[in-house]
Amino acid sequence: MAANQSGVDSFQLFPSANDNKAQLGFSFLDDSPEKPPIPLPPPCLEVLLSQVSSSVKPTLEPVNLDGLTLLKGRVSTHEVFALSNSDLVPGKYEGGLKLWEGSLDLVKSLQSEVESGNLSLIGKKVLEIGCGHGLPGIFSCLQGASAVHFQDFNSEVLQCLTIPNVVANIPVKSQSLAADAKSWDTDAEVRFFAGDWSEVHQILPNLQTDDLDSNCSPGSTVSVGYDIILMAETVYSISALPALYELIKKCMSHPHGVVYMAAKKYYFGVGGGSRRFVSLVEKDGVMVASLIAEVGGGSSNVREVWKLQFK
């Protein structure tokens, strides 16, 4: 995948002419009759701060977002997964080491929402789905969220990139990396979870209800779930959209939870896109979707930011 001048990776379905066919991340598009089966997803687990990779050290680079400067790391798929120039390998690697354009679009939209008074992150519980670099979640920490949980398909992405990025932008209180979720120099509870969208809800702490007070009176409500869910460039695969939507419904606090989603309008060649996902949401009839930002780039590469809320 080629990076633009700002170091942000754009979506590339096919490799360049110099790439070997075996390097193609989208192996499921191969017409060969001997396609290997997609492997089972890795187990769901929490990645502790102390489990940051000691062998892979990302190169830190500044990213300027309308006056806000965040640091982001750069590591290669070869260093972490021994893959060469692969965007995606289904069941093994889902693109978390790339800094996708939608991630920056999402941070800018969150900034705009906060500045216009449409959003306050202070005291909110935030989940970033498919976090990769984690810049939207990091922004939430800096804006006073009470809890920010980062989720990615690959634990290696969290260990080699997400945690170093969070440390670079929100340093830990002590020099030694501790396992305590409250070790950050922020009031937010910062935690990291790896796993497939169809299963990861089982380990997310804000969804666990076993420890709720059993003496709650009938009809009383207890806030379970996340106030704000963030996701960027997660809707590229048609086959993954149902699991992603079900995860959102399980994780979103009712009735006031909100989802901010940044994505391309269409992902040509794989069939996904923001409009395909919004269509799924509207057909279900549980939530309402509103377009809050559109980023130009030609009719074939329009990027959008959507807001989803319960009806």
Automatic annotation (TrEMBL):
From the record, give the transmembrane residue ranges: none
Superkingdom field? Eukaryota
Family, per entry: Belongs to the methyltransferase superfamily. METTL18 family.
Q: What is this protein called?
A: protein-histidine N-methyltransferase
Q: What is the lineage of its organism?
A: Eukaryota, Viridiplantae, Streptophyta, Embryophyta, Tracheophyta
Q: Which organism is it from?
A: Cynara cardunculus var. scolymus
- Principal place of residence: cytoplasm
A GO term for molecular function:
protein-L-histidine N-tele-methyltransferase activity
Q: Where in the cell is it found?
A: Cytoplasm; Nucleus
